[in-house]
Amino acid sequence: MTPPESLVPPLLLRSVRIVPVGAVAAPRELVDLRVRAGVVTEVAARLRPVPDEQVHEAEGRWAIPGLWDHHVHLAQWADTLARVDMSGTASPQDVLDRLAAHLGRLPTDDRSVVVGFGHRSALWTTAPTVAALDAVSGDRPVILVSGDGHHGWLDSAALRLMGLPPTDGPVVENDWYPVFARLSTLPTAPGARETAYRYAVQRASALGIVGVGDMEFGPEIGRWRERWAAGVTSLRVRQATYLDGLDAVLAEGLRSGDDLCDSGGLVQMGPLKIISDGSLNTRSAWCHEPYAGSHGGENPCGWPNFTEGELREAFTRARAGGLRIAIHAIGDAAIGQALDTFAATGAVGGIEHAQLVTHADVARMAALGISASVQPAHLLDDRDVAASCWPDRQERCYPFRSMLDAGVALRLGSDAPISPLDPWLAMAAAVHRSADERPPWTPAEGITAAEALAASTDGQPTIGPGSRADLVLLDADPLAAADSTEQAAAHLRRMPVAATFLCGRQVHPTP
Ligand SMILES: [Zn+2]
Predict the structure, then answer these.
(1) How far is CA 341 from CA 310, 322, 370, 407, in A?
(2) Whether 182 contacts 161, CB under 8 Å
(3) How far is the CA of 214 from the centre of ligand 1 (A)?
(4) What are the beta bridge partners of residue 242?
(5) Ligand 1 centroid vs 30 CA: distance in angstroms?
(6) 99 φ, ψ to 5°?
(7) Alpha carbon of 198 to ligand 1 centroid (Å)
(8) How much distance in Å is there from the Cα of 71 to the middle of ligand 1?
(9) With 70 as the cut, is the pLDDT of residue 188 above it?
């Protein structure tokens, strides 16, 4: 499977320092990489350019395999990015400056509605006016929702669009609420969704992301076919289906890894995703022991969403249809149930989240070959909640070190929009389990920068002949020696990405 020729240009990448990933050693000297049909074919010092080959001078930058976010909800993330964040603005001018910067990033022929959110006008000394907004937005409808949801600052185009009479200032309270309620039906303009997608994909490329496990709900298989046809071609995608879409997927004969749209393998069928328990924050993740402070109330241990029989049937159908399984399991009882089901059915796949795991189940995951798809940035938010809900079992939370040592394949991700789609944030959180000045949370479960990087490349090792030509050039060595985990994490957080290539095609910065 090779993507269309225009998407896999011949490339010579000159003077890179290859970063070792996993157990495979990297050359010590500067080398050149030759790429053909999306694959690295030669790695050697001073390769000669040949005709029709694009030459990119890497000037000694560090090269790593393209990064993956193994668990995202890309449509929701695109929506999140599409809403202009107005929090922390101190004046109408602040808001207008931020809006102008956002509009400058959108294609000029796109006239979709722009929605901003989060300004707080109570302390402003100048009044927001429709005229001032019009001066920035032109004829594009703009709706700025206040942080408390009690008013909207609309430009003239948006007032017309929403059927409101002309006015000088924000639309407030009872005039505003019917408009607010209709926002979820926006953006309705053709192309708005694609614009949001393109921007989300661009942002991902700028961070070195070349692929995602897309766990979005809904008819996303069809939507990815549309997006591919519309030219969203800068990202590898494995699109999951949920149980409600399983019949259609099986009827079409789609197996995990199958191409969804003649994309040469870039847009693939992903796993069957099953949500088998709840979450820590709603105390619904299913655990062996009661949550602290549950006082024997209803469901003191959380609860499972499926009986053993139901899970077994779903796993069996998926396996027969050639689908992998991605099972959301956060509590230790849910993880135990998932592993029982993998063992009983012979299905293959991974556990999503795996936030609280028994020692025995860590070993069982390794023995069964079940991977762990984890979101390290969640632990930054969860440590305090875990300390209050699971005070007696914190050392079994987010057990990255234990899983790696046992031989479990670790895959990092963000679950965006729950945490930002940012692989460097995920790696930093896995290395230094703290977001503030406090020492790391259960530091024994921290992993090294090298291990975090190896868990972020979809299993791709050190770049060499035969590697996917998904390549990221960095202005710094991600594995530079550090005095502490705090320093290593800070270094990862600031990692400057110079360029990203997908199948040898430069996708960032866009040429
Ligand atoms: Zn998710």
Answers:
(1) 10, 16, 11, 20
(2) no
(3) 9
(4) 273
(5) 40
(6) -65, -45
(7) 21
(8) 6
(9) no
Separation of CA 328 from chain center: 16
What is the distance in A from the centroid of ligand 1 to the CA of 113?
27
CA of 285 to the centre of ligand 1 (A): 14
pLDDT higher than 80, residue 91: yes
Task: State the pLDDT at residue 187.
Answer: 56
Ligand 1 centre and the CA of 381: distance in Å?
A: 16
Q: Enter the pTM of the model.
A: 0.85
Residue 236: what pLDDT? 98
Question: What average pLDDT does the segment 32-60 reach?
Answer: 96
Residue 216: pLDDT over 80: yes
pLDDT, residue 184, reads 61
| CATH fold for domain 196-454 | TIM Barrel (3.20.20)
Q: According to CATH, what is the number of the domain 74-185?
A: 3.10.310.70
Residue boundaries of the structural domains of the chain? 1-66+460-511, 74-185, 196-454
Q: Which of 370, 313, 310 is nearest to 336 (CA)?
A: 370
pLDDT band at residue 87 under the 50/70/90 scheme = confident
User: Concatenated DSSP letters for 212-245?
Assistant: EEE---SSHHHHHHHHHHTT--SSEEEEEEEHHH
Taking the centre of ligand 1 as the mean of its atom positions, its distance from the CA of residue 72, in whole angstroms, is 6
Name the CATH architecture for the domain at 1-66+460-511. Answer: Roll (2.30)
Full DSSP string of 241-291? EEHHHHHHHHHHT--TT-BSSSSTTSEEEEEEEEE-S--TTTT-S--SSPP
- Report the separation in Å between the CA atom of 470 and the middle of ligand 1, taken as the mean of its atom positions: 25
70 C-alpha to center of ligand 1: Å? 10
Other C-beta atoms within 10 Å of 220: how many? Answer: 23
H-run or E-run covering 195: helix 192-206
- Confidence band for 242, pLDDT divided at 50, 70 and 90: very high
Task: Compute the distance from residue 107 Cα to the ligand 1 centre, in Å.
Answer: 30
Q: What is the pLDDT of residues 300-350, one digit of tens each?
A: 999 999 999 999 999 999 999 999 999 999 999 999 999 999 999 999 999
Q: Which residues pair with residue 239 across a beta bridge?
A: 214, 269
